[in-house]
Amino acid sequence: MRARAIGCALLAAALLSGCGSHTRNVSGPRIQTALRGTWVGTLSDGLDGDALLEVRTPDTSMPITGDFVHNGPSGPVRAAVTGMVGLDSLHVAIGDGVLSGRLVLDSLHAVVQLGGATARFEARWIDQDYIARTTSTLYPLTSIGAVQAGDLLWLATTEPGYARVRDDALYDRLRVYWRPDSAWSSSALAWDGTRLWGEHPAIDGTAVVSDLLGFDERGRTGDSIRVAYRAAGLAYDGARLWTFRLDPPALLRIDAHGATLDSLHVEIPDAGAATWFAGRFWVTGTLLRRLYELGPDGHAVSFRTLPGNGVPTPAGLTADLHGPVYVESVSGTTWVHELEVFTAVPLARVLPARDRFARPR
Asked: Domains of the chain by range and CATH?
């Protein structure tokens, strides 16, 4: 990856003091070049959770723009970053004047003062990569989930039901019943080469958990796995099924009984969906419309900007032979974006053998 040496460094210190316009002076290195980039890390020592800082400064004489996303009490929160470049720091405000101060660049740590509570923000710079090609197709339906199964793309719909796509055209529609009188569609889907898996909420005592139900074009297969949390997403790595849990955010590799075999913390504060492609996980960021590539330890190593205009709702992430497939939907309309991305791992070494015979594009 480009600038990998930079990516190992810890971000910058940000000292934000009080509400309103008052700003304390914080010493630091002189800013001589424009700043732009994305840093991912965690808040601690007063504030907890993952956070992401994106700064765009085209020139040292131009205003700063950017975004700050962090985990709030009710989910991810996005705030605008504005300001100007100073001699030894960036004068920034986060949100509508709620947070203000100086973003001081160094390679040690980050200190953030939010509402009088001082917290530490340790982060690292991640590389921005690009999508080589996007093929977008429009379908007249409302989708809530997606999974690629061989040469068929299954789109979960709000009816509830499933629309299947082959060769970029609607192939058929079908219904799956999780019990005889109840049709069901799931926003969390995976395919293991034999059957599809979908999530159905369940109650276990006082806890809301998930039943992972197996099915195919003929209906339920009878396979069922219960996990002791809500699974917001599913993925299959060619050998094992993984669940995507949002609170706390993690990818969990499970066995046939729902026991956790392995886990990867997902540090993206606005993570929405996950899929497996080219020997690694890919996760969407819903607030900033990003596609994050994760390394073996679950840490983000790069990101790409997702297509779309921000109006539709993200409705799924899956993958075919050529790359991730991102789905977004708004009432009565669904866009399927087939993405081609560059990776350092040869596909033939990491894709299950059955996937190598998927249709060419």
From this structure: 4-128 (2.40.128), 131-357 (2.120.10.30)
